[in-house]
Specification:
two-stranded antiparallel ribbon; 8-stranded mixed beta sheet; mainly beta; about 200 residues; about 5% helix
Length: about 200
């Protein structure tokens, strides 16, 4: 069974099937495939700085080399917090009910730096939630596609046609200055060499 985005609001759970929306699905895509002299497709690769290793696609996703040249597989890597202590992995939120925050107004979207968009299909949902979304309400929930060390924020919303979406990214809180707060100015020293132009000399 496919995993779902499951949310909870007011004691009512709702589940959505989801599919990622990207440019290729909206507009289609074309690829340029370079061919070798025999007409076979070429494979992308990079040469290490010392010229000793040819790195092909997918190799860097398996692990890392330390500065001393030791190979460390991804399975041995850990994430550290600001104090240098190991962080606890964040479990995937898919299939697990997440409490919704909100409702917010549409302006909440302006606080999100998005990196993924999912189209939602209601499976078993609270009708009041869907009505609220289609009336312009926005709800927020934690989102982690897979178990790891990063947790994003997803905003549930609807477009003008009533289609439902989850916009996934990172919330950025803006920093504001008070109207009375003076912004320091930087005064540049005068350059005595420039002098005043006398336009009569031209």
């Amino acid at each position: 069974m496919a995993r779902q985005i499951v949310v909870e609001r007011g004691g009512q759970q709702s589940a959505f099937d989801f599919a990622k929306v990207d440019r290729s699905k909206l507009y289609g895509r074309r690829r340029r495939v370079p061919l070798d002299p025999a007409g076979e497709p070429c494979a992308r690769a990079s040469l290490s700085e010392d010229g000793a290793v040819l790195v092909r696609a997918g190799m860097t996703a398996q692990g890392y080399y330390t500065d001393e040249g030791h190979w460390v597989p991804n399975g041995e890597l850990v994430s550290l917090d600001e104090a240098g202590q190991p962080k606890e992995p964040v479990q995937s939120t898919l299939g697990h009910a997440q409490a919704l925050k909100g409702p917010f107004g549409p302006e909440r979207v302006l606080d999100l730096v998005p990196h993924a968009l999912y189209a939602l299909t209601p499976a078993e949902v609270d009708d009041a939630l869907v009505v609220g979304l289609r009336e312009g309400e926005v709800y927020e929930l934690p989102f982690a596609y897979r178990t790891g060390y990063l947790e994003d924020t997803a905003l549930l919303l609807a477009n003008e046609d009533g289609e439902l979406f989850a916009l996934v990214g990172r919330i950025v809180e803006p920093l504001w200055r008070e109207a009375e707060e003076r912004i320091p100015t930087v005064l540049e020293e005068d350059d005595d060499d420039h002098g005043d132009l006398d336009f009569e000399m031209f």
